[in-house]
Design brief:
One of its GO terms (molecular function) is catalytic activity. With 244 residues, the chain is an alpha/beta fold. The chain contains ten helices and eight strands.
Length: 244
């Protein structure tokens, strides 16, 4: 049986993984969701100084504190950035890295690079206007849906996402990944692609072509960008398959 460390995306906490974690435990696995600094129950620990390095330290510290071995490290969405940074620091504790509707970050890359300059500027303005200069509130669904598929989320799940989301420390979006250490050659590499990402991969986008080739293993999940909410059991099934 495997040990899963489940890292949530922007605005989320460990709570988002509850159903998937429970399904994994029912299959005999150890499933450990974590909440990053400045979010959910750790919201009061965040501040203007909270950045990408903070979240990288959260992940490595969590694994080391619990003395975890043979870890399958799972990144959803934004978590791809700190997970990429943490993966190379975990040494032989890491057995597998799984990116859920996300992909590894390159050195010098930050979250704002994933969006058009105008959209990035709008986020900066939003942080200045309503986030005390350092917090990014979750955008309205009509805005969020322009870049991230809401497919599969029913009204109750959307309400949960809206009411339990907490503002994201904006330093985690602006700080560039300094040195994503290379994964060890023996680290298993897995991609779980949902609707929009599946389309990009199938379209042959050059910068993503490597994800369709060994040593990467790809699994497709026909739902929107938040599969731990819209399809938690199906996501657990795929995660189970990655370690079988």
């Amino acid at each position: 049986m495997a040990t899963f460390v489940l890292v949530p995306g922007a605005w989320l906490g460990a709570w988002a993984w509850e159903d998937t974690a429970q399904a994994l435990r029912q299959r005999g696995h150890t499933a450990l969701p974590l909440t990053l600094t400045g979010l959910a129950e750790h919201a009061d620990q965040g501040g203007p100084q909270t950045d990408l390095d903070t979240h990288i330290a959260d992940i490595t510290g969590f694994v080391e504190k619990h003395d975890l071995r043979d870890v399958t490290l799972v990144a959803h969405s934004y978590a791809a950035a700190p997970v990429t940074g943490a993966a190379g620091r975990l040494g032989d504790r890491l057995e597998r890295v799984v990116y859920v509707d996300s992909a590894p970050f390159a050195a010098g890359m930050c979250m704002l690079d994933l969006m058009p300059p105008q959209a990035a500027d709008q986020l900066r303005q939003q942080v200045d206007a309503s986030g005390d200069g350092w917090r990014l509130p979750m955008p309205p669904f009509e805005v969020l849906g322009l870049s991230s598929s809401l497919d599969g989320l029913n009204e109750g799940q959307r309400n949960t996402l809206r009411t339990r989301a907490t503002p994201q420390p904006f330093g985690t979006y602006t700080q560039r990944l300094a040195d994503p250490a290379e994964f060890g050659s023996d680290v298993d590499r897995v991609l779980i692609a949902c609707h929009d990402f599946t389309g990009l991969l199938d379209a042959g986008v050059p910068m993503l072509a490597y994800l369709n080739q060994p040593p990467w293993r790809r699994f497709d999940l026909p739902t929107g960008h938040w599969p731990m909410l819209s399809a938690p059991a199906e996501l657990a099934d795929i995660l189970d398959k990655t370690v079988s």
